[in-house]
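Q: A reviewer asked whether we had any structural model of the full assembly, not just the individual parts. We don't, so I'm hoping you can provide one. Inputs are below.
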Amino acid sequence: MESIHQTKDNKPFEDLFFHKGPKGIKAYEDVVKQVSTKLIDIYSNVNQPYVGKKSEEIRKEIQGSLHSTKQEESLSDFLEAIDVPILRNSLHVTHEKSVAHLHCPPLLPGIAAEMMISLLNQSMDSWEQSTAATYVEQEMISWLTKRFGLPAEADGVFSSGGSQSNYMGLLLARDSFCEQHWGCNVQEHGLPEGFKKMKILCSEEAHFTVQKSASQLGLGADAVVTVKTDHHHRLSIPHLYEALRVLSDEGSLPFALVGTCGTTDFGSIDPLDELAEVAHSNGLWLHVDAAFGGALILSHTHAYKLNGIQLADSITVDFHKLFYQPISCGAFLVNDRRSFNYTNHHADYLNPESDEAEGIVNLVNKSIVTTRRFDAFKIFASLKIVGTDQFREMIDHTFSLAKRSAHLIDRLELFNVLNVNPELNTIIFRFQPGDVPEDELNTLNHSIQQRLLHEGTAVIAKTKVQKATYLKFTLLNPRTQIQDIHSIVKDIELLGLKELEKRRIIQ
Ligand SMILES: *Cc1c(COP(=O)(O)O)cnc(C)c1O
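A: Here is a predicted structure for the entire assembly that you could use as a starting point for your response.
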């Protein structure tokens, strides 16, 4: 019979986990060395942001490599097997000409933190599982609430990103309204009878997750009333008043107003001060979606554009966009920590009420998820190592690059730029020779964007503005220079002219 004191000579799974034994240390060193050698090899040979392959080709290569890999292959065999199908076939977001979406190159300090996050594998739900990490997250939240000018009662929690934070803002708004208006506890009893009258207001250019959240919250996407934007793509205050009047006439119950600080396409910022005033005088919860524009707290030239955000009831910030963190990393802030009562649920095994009495902090009380990553560590490490001065320079560089690029494109005869003075760092434009009819311009620009992607020379985005197809640069990368933009624009022009010629020959 084995006794529990008996030690075995042959310990199982020794080289599969990191532990202090020689095999554990060796295995860990091997992982770090082999992976970094592989990545250095890949990145030293990246000449363009994308290999250019079509989706079907990549699907086949992935499936092929999955079927051909053996069970239990060594790490080095594995790295060899995924070299082309996964590593080289990926989008290289660090490349200067990867300028499509709000998809950033990750900062190295964030990557260093990410390595520690995985290894420490703390879980942010209860203090017992994140003994030090809990306080790092709290410190980061307190840094953020101060930077945003929120009051002392403010609080927040890290999230997977903007979608989750917007959902949480509207969840708290919904439950707080139902309590005030009907004395209804939604957490316990579900939505009250009159819920179909509940409405959320936001601009027509707000992020689609406002509608998605409304669906998920049981209100339905049609609970969202979109308000027209002005010439600068900002929510129009006169139209907001008009919408409120209509809602009041029809007996609807508006309860939340979502302001956007940095729309996905134009980077426009709603007049936050005025929104706060309207929200206050109409009893609306003001949620500000600053997933993109929240980084202005670190800007020098643009920080003033955040004026009014301190009056919001809740705020969304994303760190995996303009804060350059590896995905995923976001935060949700509230101006009154009592709002988190609507997400709190006591579980005996995790966050019993007795913990609170003893002053033990269990962050699960503030989140809609339980097991949660120590993502706060990434932005903590980046701020410490990069410093706010360099952050500011990086962010401001992208703003001035956007402005210079917009002027550069605007001066070209065959192009049309919609935002010659970009609010943040996106530029919306198209190849638009004078004699080409509107519907042809749409297919022309669509095919330019696709051709660039499949040549792999530049990855740019396309979007629709009033049903017309436009091209978009999102200039997040602080290493992108005006010469890069110049060269992409030249490629666009060449592709456009070639495409036009092809069409004329066919006709
Ligand atoms: C990116 C973005 C979101 C969604 O955030 P995720 O982090 O992708 O979930 C929401 N709102 C705005 C304005 C965004 O730019």
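A: Points you may want to mention in the reply: The chain has 14 helices and eleven strands. The radius of gyration is 26 Å.
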